[in-house]
Design brief:
Structural class: mainly beta
Helix content: under 10%
Number of strands: 14
Strand content: 35-45%
Radius of gyration: 16 Å
Mean pLDDT: 75
Low-confidence stretches: 9-17
Distance between the termini: 39 Å
Strand order of the largest sheet: 6-7-8-9-12-13
Amino acid sequence: NGERVEFKSGPIVDAVRALVRLNADGSADPTFDAPEVNGFATSIVQRSDGKIYVGGSFSFSGTHPGNVLRLHADGTRDTTFAEFFFATASTLPVLALALDGSGALQVATSSWIARYTSAGAFDPLLPGVTIGSANGPAIGALLPRSDGGLWVAGNFTRIGTAAHEGIGRFAPGA
């Protein structure tokens, strides 16, 4: 529909309301009612039903520190996801998000990757996998595979116990 959702930070954007949806002409959509956020976002993905996941390291509405937030298509917070997700989430900033074909959310921090169901529950089919590097790992991108596995790109030297130089793939349960 020509709309984009972007997270902006810095002096040009209102410091309290930094999550905005842009219209096709680049203007801010005043009907997008995102919560107040403080911190930074690194990744945004949108589901086919219009719900939006935002990953990073932030607090919103002055209360909830976190690393993943799910919004309804109108920008309001989806509390059914956040309350469950934050009960199990890491406190590390999220560096990358991706949605797979089943609607599950792939989440990467600087030291692990895990998959969560569309409801926000930890998915045991892709247990948390550690990422390692002598220089401090960083995940730059995630790409779900059709078999339920995942491609991973970034600055790392291993995924789990297997050696990988900057790119790797693995299957569920591997």
